[in-house]
Amino acid sequence: MEFTIKSGSPEKQRSACVVVGVFDNRKPSLSAELIDRASGGYVSEIIRRGDMEGKLGSTLLLHNVRGTLADRVLLVGLGKERDFREREFRTATRAAVRLLNETGSYEAVVYLTEEKVKRREVAWRVEHAGKVAMAKGIPTRTIASVICVSEAPEVRITVYSEFATSPAIADRVPISAAVGTSS
Length: 183
Known about the structure:
The chain is α/β, with parallel strands linked by helices and 183 residues long. It is built from 7 helices and 8 strands.
């Protein structure tokens, strides 16, 4: 599995799937709003109809969203914005990874790392997104590459498949150490 950290707008990502969040009470994240603007209000329409309410861990996969370069857009429920903490971040990320594996997507641009987590910096969010993606119990054979997008400087992190199958090894190689930051 390869992790690349870079910045860029979600609607301009050429990928099998772009992952963005929606908070409880149907409030789109900034990245979901950017997709919405590019699509002429398509995401807002889906949220308004009640197809995605933002319940923590809920997912909705959209295909061929106009105005974007991605094949799919995955909306992930983030729960209540004021309560978005470590557990909620992991739950949302886990839901995204599970659904990505079910779709057969071999890569994804994940914007969940942009969401503010109480008392956690971007390095923690990127590290834990990687740990969730490599966690035991989540099959990772269908994802060759996960691209986490954040405000962090551009850094390429490669984690080979043997790390994905051994949580003990993954725990000894924290992603934040590779980025040069601490959690």
